[in-house]
Amino acid sequence: MSSKEKLKIIPLGGMREIGKNITAFECGEEILIVDCGIAFPEDEMLGIDLVIPDVSYLTKNKSKIKGIILTHGHEDHIGAIPYVLREFQVPVYGTRLTLALLRFKLEEHGILGTTDLRTVYPGQSEQFGRFNVEFIRTTHSIPDSIALAIHTPVGTIVQTSDFKIDYTPIASEPMDLNKFAELGNQGVLLLMCDSTNVESEGHTMSEKTLEATFEETFRRAKGRILVTTFASNIQRLQQVFEASAKFNRKVALCGRSIDHAFKAASAEGYLNIKDDMIVDIDKINKYKNEEIVILTTGSQGEPMSALSRIASSEHRKVEIIPGDMVVISANPIPGNEKLISRVINELFSKGAEVVYEKLADIHVSGHACKEELRLMHRLVKPKYFMPVHGEYRHLKQHANLAMEMGMSEEDIFIMDVGDVLELTSHSARINGHVASGRVLVDGLGVGDVGSVVLRDRKLLSEDGLIVVVMTARKRRATS
Ligand SMILES: [Zn+2]
Ligand SMILES: [Zn+2]
To answer: Which residue among the candidates 194, 324, 419, 442 is catalytic per the annotation?
Structure first.
């Protein structure tokens, strides 16, 4: 370990915001990128489909990039890959399920054949120039999630990425807690740790606790059951299949993202179900109502999703019939409450019974609460700490938690997007800032929509539009 070496850690997204996680690790002439996600547009971003990170700093330094490592298959970690690969082509590393989900995305963008995808396995490590990266199994709301131990010339960085400590996970292996303890004993320079649930006391419930709730809910249902959840929550899909099997029901899949997640997880062996469990959505009418479960997209009330269209009678294949039970097995992402509420109202008004988080414990979070975070800090025992994956209040609360556990304030770094944390083997400081921010994507293009266009759209949406048609005749001057 040289005392002259310097490591720069540059978050280009995911700080003081939820979404578009991407971080660059730069040492000399080498850059390693971890994650590359999208954020969802805010209410005032009219007509915007998604938000991706500004990666102009990386584009400028593309010859240095050794690769992109993806920690898991959620949109806020992989969603921007097709856009970023337009700027620079580098190998993309991920676990089996993560890459299986990414492949659908690359195919839609027509770049599957030209992308260099490399599978990594929890428990193994890989060399990226002078970075040696260990992939550590974690538990989260999607299987095959990993944390990283990045061994650099100045010391070891532990990046937990999104995790909860689930002692009884469904459809995945338990978290490799021993590895974190081992790293802690060897000495960790910096811990970067998930802050999403830092405001919640205690311990996140295990996925397994939902088993009884699903069983009880399914037992009550007299007619069809519609279940919606995050498509990538493979563990939850498995639970729905198990409850369906128990009550002799077949499952029909409804919506593109559920279909993709189902195919990816089945192909990689993350779903364990009998083939005859699945029925085509076109054939559900051949069964009695009490023999059917429909697994559908739309847990966030997204207007174009299958459940929203079913609720508003705009779906071509499924219509609500009185006596249907609709189970919403997800919590609203902040900002989506109104959309979901509208869907719930419509479902009730059509005669369905709706089971949602306010009425039943039908969802558990995928992120660590305070007690799990404390355990992580104790195991890893870092010299420095950077809270990640949260709005400012989450980062601040996580900093407080670290201080309560004995860290001093000057060893904790609350970063902003674009800030550069400069580390040596014995020092750390925020030094400099690089170009960063967000790029708006609408159906037509990437980055074409700036604040002026958004302002015009806002005006149009509020004040309407007048089109002035004026004809003019061109008269040649005679004199
Ligand atoms: Zn995330
Ligand atoms: Zn996640």
So the answer is: 194
